[in-house]
Amino acid sequence: MTVTKVSEQQTWQEVLETVKALDPQKLEIIKATLPIVKEHGEAITKHFYKRMFKQHPELLNIFNQTHQITGHQPKALADAVYGAAANIEDFSQIMPVLERIGEKHRSLQIKPEHYPIVGENLLAAIKEVLGDAATNEIIDAWADAYGVISDVFIRMEDRMYKTTEAKPGGWAGFRDFVVDKKVKESEVITSFYLKPKDGKQIADFIPGQYITIKMDIGSEKFTHLRQYSLSDRPGLDYYRISVKREEEKEGEIPAGVVSSFLHANINEGDMIQITAPAGDFYLDMDSDLPLVLISGGVGLTPMMCMLNTTVQERPDRKVYYIHAAVNSKLHAFKKHVNNLAEDHKTVKSLVVYEKPSAEDIEMKSYDKDGFINLEWLKEILPTKGADFYFCGPEPFMKVINKALKQWGISEEHIHYEFFGSFGSLD
Fold first, then answer.
1. 211 closest CA partner among 168, 175, 244
2. Are 18 and 160 found together in one domain?
3. Which residues bind FAD (predicted)?
4. Which of 113, 237, 257, 404 is deepest in the core (most CB within 10 A)?
């Protein structure tokens, strides 16, 4: 299985010609004001979202409001604005990040007509937050810079839309799927098997990618869009998502509106609208190195897809699958992974429970208690010459990323899915 990245198709000469159109004096203004924009980035983007949603409430049908509450979305936008502006003279240096954003935009159905709305409100937010420091000259320069950046995204995403629609089984926009099966995997995770309502072919995807679902919830004023990793291998006649029911956290983060609705109200036979698979976090199927999959909690969803695909398509490849959960009650797909490990000598499963139950202790159903650390990884993995993929809560991923780097694993062999734009786990 291979993938052609958009950067390989993009005519970069056209992009560079667009960048050259930016007046040199305005380019110098952008460079000079970058530190100020970075310092006040989150304040600007928080104000931007409030301003934009007030003037264009219809956009609340696109944006995840929980990410507004947690601050994830404003931070992601602040990172994106700064990162794109800082590299405006040579976007090829940040193409993987631009593609990540473009994939999310395509999956969410962001269209060219949205960019002027964002630009107008972003520039106004810069002016309103920075006050007199944001002179007309500075705002004018940033307006031109935004024009260049948005033009790059619009043309890149246009290619993504066309490529996706042209694929066998591909489609544009949202497509109706029916819940063929609903399976409880743990106390908090439930799987939904989705088949196309029209009975026609569905698009292939690369292990690790996700789909966007659109939910109209009766008690909610606006439509909700959510992205969920595909948790079973490609080549089947269904897509599977495995959704964790998100509970309210310490009175600050509300319970997951969509995840709660899916668990409580969506059943077999119900219809869900989804966009075609997307995402830039995916398994390199051509590598011959041992594969190490590390997941925490519901971060196992893309790992299950990678594991199932590898067993099916590369049964000779050695796989070490390490999963961390609170205990067995919250551990999804445990029996399935154990069966794979029993049936395939190339697969080894290792389990870490933070707080094993009395039954877990009695049954000896885990390999380590507490947390994953570098010392333990060195003990259980016979080599560090492997490809490492990991996914889970951000604190979990920071620990894993730090451990792998301390072990001397090069960046080209470290792969993870990170929410945001130009953020990192460092």
1. 175
2. yes
3. 210, 226-229, 418-421
4. 404
128, part of any domain: yes
Residue entry with tokens 């994953």: 372
Flag whether 96 is marked binding: no
Known binding residue 218? Answer is no
More confident site: 92 or 383: 383
Instruction: Dump pLDDT digits (tens) for 77-87.
Output: 888 888 889 98
Mean residue pLDDT of the chain comes to 90
Q: Which residues are catalytically annotated?
A: 115, 157
Burial label for 363, CB within 10 Å (0-12, 13-18, 19+), is: exposed
- Whether residue 298 is annotated as binding a ligand: the answer is yes
Name the pTM for this structure: 0.92
Task: Provide the H-helix boundaries in 131-241.
Answer: 136-166
Instruction: Tell me which H or E stretch contains 111.
Output: none
Sheet holding 347-353, edge to edge: 368-369, 347-353, 319-325, 291-296, 387-391, 414-416
229 assigned ligand-binding residue: yes
The domain that holds 259 is classified in CATH as 2.40.30.10
Q: Could you tell me which residue, 16 or 127, shows the higher pLDDT?
A: 127
CATH label of the domain that carries residue 310 = 3.40.50.80
